[in-house]
Amino acid sequence: MLVPYLIYNNVQHGVKPSDFRQDYHVHIFCKQGGMTFKANNQLHEVHAGDLVIWQMSNKISEVTYSTDADIDFLLIGWDFLQTYNPEMQWATKGYVLLKFNPVIHLDDKGIQLITSDFEAFRQRIYNPQTLFQDEIMGRLLQIFLFDLWNIVKHEIEQLGADDNQSRIFLRFLFLVQENCKQNRDVAFYADRLCIVPKYLSEICRNVSHQPASDWIEQFTANELTRLLNDRTISFTDIADEMNFSTLSFFSRYVKKVLGVTPSEYRKQRQ
Fold it and tell me: What is the reported pTM?
């Protein structure tokens, strides 16, 4: 079972943010040097003073680090984030904004805030309390998220959606996260939300400018990538776990969402 929250430094601990991108939301604070990466096939550059958010639904690839990179990174599990998310509308808009704009260039005040928040996490994680530990960490997460949303408030305010639509959209994302391995039809999620598929698609477009089907595909691609990266799992077992009726259907779907067949994907990563 995954630990719900961790904080590391690449120099001090000998690990990198990209080691954890499949299992956590990764919050990266670059203190020195830099890095590059692709998110959803778009190249991003990171420099000292930048904050980077890798959400679990992001397709992160081609990560490189400068030789002098000094990076703190906070790892938050999906379930823990869902439990302690402090405000639904801002959470939804922030989720959408950061999915397409994962690099935040901090000013001096922003650097101060993030440095303080990361230090608070570090103190509590490496000096844990035996009583109410998760609750304390949950409050620290809420403070960090409020600080984060305040930093990007002008960009978030440009995203249109009322509170009810935001709540439905975020619930939709949670359902997709939980069920995309077995269900990839918009109608399934609309039924679970007690709305019609047309209205669900309208909400997704209003909040994120993407249809519901695209979000389902992105979460499914993330699951496929995670499973294909584990070479101990056969294609047949992956197809069964992802509820594909045949191996040929599985292969065609992987080709559609990842751009390569399952065999080609693994060959590229040998």
Answer: 0.67
